[in-house]
Amino acid sequence: MSDVIVVGCGRVGSRLANMLSDSGNNVCVIDKNADAFANLGRSFNGSTLQGVGFDEDVLVKAGVDDCDVVAAVTQFDNTNLMVAEVANRLHGVPHVIARLYNPGHERAYMQLGIDYVCGTSLVAEDVFSKIVSGHGAHLDTFGEFEVLRFSLDLSWSDKRTIRVGEIERDHDIRIIAFERGDGSASSIPTRDSILYNGDSVLACIRHELIDQFSRYIQD
C-alpha cells in the first residue's frame, strides 16, 4: 500500500485515482476546479483537495512530505513538469510521474530525470503500472522480466564508461538499445559497445534483480 497524490482530476486522473484506491492505496486528488471531483464517482474512498497542483502549500496539505508517489496527469505539460520538479527537488518524493502530451518535450523530461508517460490513450493504465511496479524506469512487464528505460548513472564509480558485455555479465541484464546522452546517436549494441554516463538505455531485467541494479539508474 502506498500514499499517492494525483494532480489532475480529468478523465485520466480520475480513472487513475480510482484504480489506485481500489487497489488499497491511500490517494489524495488535487485539482484547481472543484467540479472536476465529480469525475471520481461515488465509489472513490480517497480524499480531494482544491488548489493548484504545483503550489507548495497545496502539496504540503495533500501530504507530499510523507507520500510515496506523485502523479501529475493534467492536460498541460508545463503544469505537470512544475509539479514533478516541486515534488521531487523540493520535497524529495521518491517516485514522481508526469504525463507528457507533446513528444517534442520528451528529451527535456529525460534530461531532467523525470519519469513520464507519453500519449493520450491508456495513460491511466500506464501510470498505474509504473506505480505498482515500484520503479520509475519501468516501461512494461513480461512475466518475470521488467523492461526499463533509464539514464545510465556511473557517478558512484570511478568509471565514466562501461562495456555492454560487462554490465550484462555482472547483472544478468540484456541491453536492448541505447542513445547517447546528447542525442547524437542511437544503436542496438554489441557486447563491445561502450556506454557513457548519462546515456539513455533500454534494457530487460528480471524483476528481483532491479534493486541491486538500481545504482546504475539515475534518480
TrEMBL record:
Key words of the record: Ion transport, Potassium, Potassium transport, Transport
GO molecular function term, any single one: potassium ion transmembrane transporter activity
Which PANTHER family does UniProt cross-reference here?
Answer: POTASSIUM CHANNEL PROTEIN 2-RELATED-RELATED
Q: What InterPro entries does the annotation carry?
A: K_uptake_TrkA, NAD(P)-bd_dom_sf, RCK_N, Trk_Ktr_HKT_K-transport
* RCK N-terminal domain segment(s): 1-118
Source taxon at top rank = Bacteria
Q: What is the lineage of its organism?
A: Bacteria, Pseudomonadati, Bacteroidota, Bacteroidia, Bacteroidales
Q: What organism does this protein naturally occur in?
A: Muribaculaceae bacterium Z82
Q: Spell out the Gene3D superfamilies in the cross-references.
A: NAD(P)-binding Rossmann-like Domain (3.40.50.720)
Q: Which GO terms describe its cellular component?
A: plasma membrane
The molecule here is called: TrkA family potassium uptake protein
- Is NADP among this UniProt entry's keywords? no
